[in-house]
Amino acid sequence: MDILEFIAWISLAVGALSSVIILVDIIQHPQMMTIMNIVWPINGWFLGPVALWTYFKWGKLKAKDNQAEDRRGQGAKVFLSTSHCSAGCTLGDAVGVPIVFFLGLTLFNSTLLAHYVVEFTAAYVFGVLFQLFAILPMNRERGWKGALKDSIKADTLSLVAFEVGMFGWMAIVHFILFQNPPMPSEATYWLMMQIAMILGFLTSYPANWWLVQKGIKEAM
């Protein structure tokens, strides 16, 4: 086992442990917004200790049994909105990877392009669904169709911004960092994916700030 693979296993273990800690607490203290019960553990996988810190500092303020006053600033609320978007993207990307890998898909003889198309599509579907399950409970008068339109409007720019960061890193991994890029069957591949998710989060944050500022998306 080389040093990078060792680091990968440590990073994946820390991410998994962070997700489990958050999940155990959420089972005891469910979120007011049901979809956030899924969002927080997913964030734990790639944000690790940062997800733990933000969950216990900001996330628990929105637990059903919490009586404390919500004093979160705009930055924290946009962080949660970005977390919500990123979780949907992450789930879609994680679903897309094995589809491309096990089916041996390529596009124009490129596996990377196949990953881009399949993962973007899956991320978009999950991202819109996550947004839908956030919007619909707050605006039931809009109905499913209206809530779906609002979800597409609120999530599209945010998702594209996320994928810019993620896909950019994937290209660096594929063309610059490795002579033979790691495969999804290797721990190193998933370390690279964790980094891709973090970069996607960072590129998505300004987009979410703008969406919230313009009233296109509600701060969470």
TrEMBL record:
- Keyword Chloroplast in the entry? The reply is no
**A Pfam family annotated for this UniProt entry:** DUF4396
| Source species, domain of life | Bacteria
UniProt keyword annotations, A-Z: Membrane, Transmembrane, Transmembrane helix
Q: Which segments constitute the DUF4396 domain?
A: 77-217
Is the Transcription regulation keyword given for this protein? no
Membrane-crossing ranges are: 6-26, 38-56, 113-136, 157-177, 189-212
This one is known as DUF4396 domain-containing protein
Source species:
Pontibacillus salicampi
